[in-house]
From TrEMBL, chain A:
CDD domains: TM_PBP2 (cd06261). This is Sugar ABC transporter permease. The lineage of its organism: Bacteria, Bacillati, Bacillota, Bacilli, Bacillales. Its main location: membrane. Belongs to the binding-protein-dependent transport system permease family. It comes from Paenibacillus zeisoli.
From TrEMBL, chain B:
Residues 1-21 form the signal peptide. It comes from the Bacteria. It comes from Paenibacillus zeisoli. InterPro entries: Bact_solute-bd_prot1 (IPR050490), SBP (IPR006059). This is Extracellular solute-binding protein. Residues 22-48 are annotated as: Disordered. The keyword Transport applies.
Length: 296, 459
């Protein structure tokens, strides 16, 4: 068998189906997107009638204030998930890992939001944010705080979306981090405990360093998720009020796809791709590469 | 020996994978092949064939409309031996913005499909994807039956689609509340403003509002500027003959803002979706509601406004003193309808089925059914006596009375401007105006800037 695998023909034959699927569903769309991004295609015209317009689409997008508002909102998504969501994820994982009773219940409860559809979550949180009868305003009125128009006031709209988005995905990442924590050999912590380390010391000096690789993965996934966020924005505010919660993906839909500007839309898609690439690259260079490999 | 066996096996694996991957493709081509011999045979061909029909009658709100369509489909099938009409239901937004567009791009739309008039149908027609209906209309004697409603479906003088109905926009009002408080339907603009003051003083929100989607509040703004700056102002702006910064236009924007500031609209409106607006009116919270006549279907049996049947009236925006142009004009639109694939022309049997479909759907009976069962105004000419004898719904009578008493009409602003201007206005500017982040003058300037860019690009 090994001999057979060394034969390049056999090797290629085995790899071929996977490569073909990869070419069809990943490489081809990326290149066709790249091709259309240099055209003024309206999405309907026959392919032989498409006009090549150079980098006009890109200069147009980069020159639009509204596009930069969308980029800024994507940045908020990233900052919120990296600096607020990730610490919360780690703290909750540490807590759940060390509860003695009902661990299964906590795990299920915390994972529940991530299996719900975004549309359902949008409606659910729409009720919570409802100004007149919503849960949040009811609670706040208890403390004497007046009505806040969460989704219709641009001071709060983006924050409301970020909170909902965090609520949806936190559980998913907690399960990942939890798995990493639970895979740490028990002896390590026991030894530290015998040496007199407190629970806090064990968490920060032993567990945390050991789960850094998985946290790094969580951060990467959060960044990628933040760059392509769209559904949650569409169901909660649809980019409003007055475009203040627009992200790059919803910008693409609104300013390009619904206006029959597929060429322009593809250039936005390419820009999202490039921006994501840059952000993850920076993260890789600055943070991820520095992590040491851990071997037990 | 062993080596060649492995090679053989792996080759087998790859080929089976590839074959199974390709099998999907060959399946889809089959119907086309079976269709070919049918074309060659002459007359009296009763072999089975299929026509696909994409409609958007999804959900409880549209079940009356679906029933009408199903009856039409049944009639056409009975008349045509061998024909099966395959219904394909898709949500209207999904159909308009995604599915149909994808199919148009790929060049394989359904034979019959629900299509939005301007700019969608015109663009598809321009790209040669739609069937020219002009000769069919002439053949069926329908050419002059659609007065003033075919514009959205007309490209270079040819008709490519037929509107299922028409609609108009105006104020719905709560008759019970008006009677209780001794309020009257306003005949002049000062009377309307007085009415708003009184309702506000009574502790109610005068006008229902949900502005998460910008086109909803813009219905009212559109009506206001039609009074102040004239019904044809948008048409002139789109042609570069007038500007958004026209002083009368700014006056209309300022009026909207003034009403916002006086608290005449539901607070927090920017966070409410269009679906929420109905509840504000039916719950009695807001006694006035500016919307399209299509919403009259809410006040039918089994719908959310059932409790208000007979208690809702309709009036036109009163004339503005010193306004420009015809002061009774209201928005009348006919952008929802059916179009047909250009490919139908190549298959005589399909073409025949399409003709029958048009004949059965676009006639007086069906138009009247749409009006009485679904609250959709006719898009075809219906003799007035027939109209009056059929309609017994109070609200519908009100609406027809308003329509008969108006002199002019104008198409919705967003069907007349470039999508870029539409997006700028409805997704950004109007919400800024409502939220107090811009002024009428600044908004007019910003809109003009986008319009100038669009006009410059066209040149």
């Amino acid at each position: 068998m090994n001999k057979a695998m060394k034969n390049p023909t056999v090797f290629i034959l085995f790899v071929l189906p996977a490569v073909m699927l990869f070419l069809m569903f990943f490489i081809y769309p990326i290149f066709s997107s790249l091709y259309f991004s240099f055209t003024s295609w309206n999405g309907v015209a026959k392919l032989d009638k498409i006009k090549y317009i150079g980098i006009d689409n890109f200069t147009k997008a980069l020159g639009q204030d509204r596009f930069w508002v969308a980029v800024k909102n994507n940045a908020y998504f990233i900052l919120f998930s990296v600096f607020l969501q990730v610490p919360v994820i780690v703290i909750f994982s540490l807590l759940i890992a060390h509860v003695k009773k009902l661990k299964g219940l906590y795990k299920t409860a915390i994972f529940l939001p991530s299996i719900m559809s975004t549309a359902v979550i949008g409606i659910l949180w729409g009720f919570i944010y409802e100004p007149d009868i919503g849960l949040l305003n009811k609670i706040l009125s208890f403390f004497g705080i007046g009505k806040i128009y969460w989704l219709s006031d641009n001071t709060y709209a983006m924050l409301s979306i970020l909170i909902t988005n965090a609520w949806q995905w936190t559980g998913y990442y907690i399960i990942m981090v939890l798995a990493a924590i639970l895979s740490i050999p028990k002896e390590l912590e026991e030894a530290a405990a015998i040496d007199g380390a407190t629970a806090y010391q064990r968490a920060t000096r032993i567990v945390l360093p050991l789960i850094t690789p998985i946290i790094s993965v969580v951060v990467m996934l959060s960044i990628a998720g933040a760059m392509k966020a769209a559904d949650i924005v569409i169901v909660m505010t649809n980019g409003g009020p007055a475009g203040s919660t627009e992200v790059m993906a919803t910008y693409m839909i609104r300013y390009a796809i619904t206006s029959f500007k597929y060429g322009y839309g593809n250039s936005i898609a390419v820009l999202i791709f490039i921006f994501t690439l840059i952000v993850t690259l920076i993260y890789q260079l600055l943070v991820a590469r520095r992590n040491e490999r851990i071997e037990y | 020996m062993k080596k060649s066996l492995v090679l053989l096996l792996s080759l087998l694996l790859v080929t089976t994978t590839m074959l199974s991957a390709c099998s999907g493709g060959s399946n889809t081509e089959k119907p086309a092949k079976t269709g070919e011999p049918a074309k060659q045979e002459e007359k009296a061909d009763n072999s089975p064939f299929e026509v696909t029909l994409r409609h958007t009658q999804v959900g409880a709100d549209k079940k009356n409309r679906l029933a009408i369509l199903q009856d039409v489909v049944k009639k056409v099938q009975d008349e045509t031996p061998g024909l099966t009409i395959k219904l394909d239901a898709v949500d209207s937004e999904v159909n308009r913005k995604e599915k149909l567009r994808g199919e148009m791009a790929a060049g394989n739309p359904p034979d019959i499909f629900d299509v939005f008039g301007s700019p969608d149908a015109q663009l598809y027609a321009k790209e040669g994807r739609m069937l020219d209906l002009t000769p069919i209309l002439a053949e069926l004697g329908l050419s002059d039956k659609f007065p003033n409603v075919l514009d959205p479906y007309t490209y270079e003088g040819k008709v490519y689609g037929l509107p299922i109905g028409a609609s108009a926009e105006g104020f719905f009002y709560n008759k019970d509340y008006f009677a209780q408080k001794g309020l009257k339907v306003p005949n002049t603009f000062p009377e309307l403003e007085e009415l708003l003051v009184k309702i506000k003083a009574d502790g109610k929100t005068p006008i229902a509002a949900a502005s998460k989607e910008g086109w909803v509040p813009l219905m009212l703004t559109n009506q206001l500027w039609a009074r102040y700056a004239g019904p044809d102002i948008v048409k002139r702006i789109a042609a570069g003959e007038a500007k958004w910064t026209d002083p009368n236009m700014v006056k209309a924007f300022a009026k909207h803002v003034e009403w916002e500031k006086k608290g005449y609209f539901k607070k927090g409106e920017l966070g409410f979706a269009y679906g929420d607006i109905t509840g504000q009116f039916t719950s009695g919270e807001a006694p006035l509601w500016f919307d399209g006549t299509w919403k009259s279907s809410v006040f039918k049996k089994g719908q959310s406004g059932e409790a208000m049947i007979g208690k809702v009236g309709f009036f036109n925006m009163p004339p503005v003193d010193g306004g420009t142009g015809e002061q009774t004009a209201l928005m009348r639109d006919s952008n929802n309808g059916y179009g047909f694939s250009a490919a139908v022309a190549d298959d005589p049997r399909k073409l025949d089925a399409v003709k029958k479909f048009i004949k059965e759907l676009f006639n007086e009976d069906m138009q009247l059914r749409g009006l009485t069962e679904d609250g959709v105004l006719p898009s075809m000419t219906i003799p007035e006596d027939k109209l009056n004898s059929t309609v017994n719904d109070e609200l519908m009578k009100d609406i027809i009375k308003v329509l008969n008493s108006t002199q002019g009409s104008f198409p919705a602003w967003d069907s007349q401007v470039d999508p870029d201007i539409n997006t700028e206005f409805s997704a950004v500017q109007i919400q800024k105006l409502i939220g107090g982040q811009t002024t009428p003058e600044k908004m007019a300037g910003d809109l003009q800037k986008v319009t100038d860019e669009v006009l410059a690009n066209k040149e």
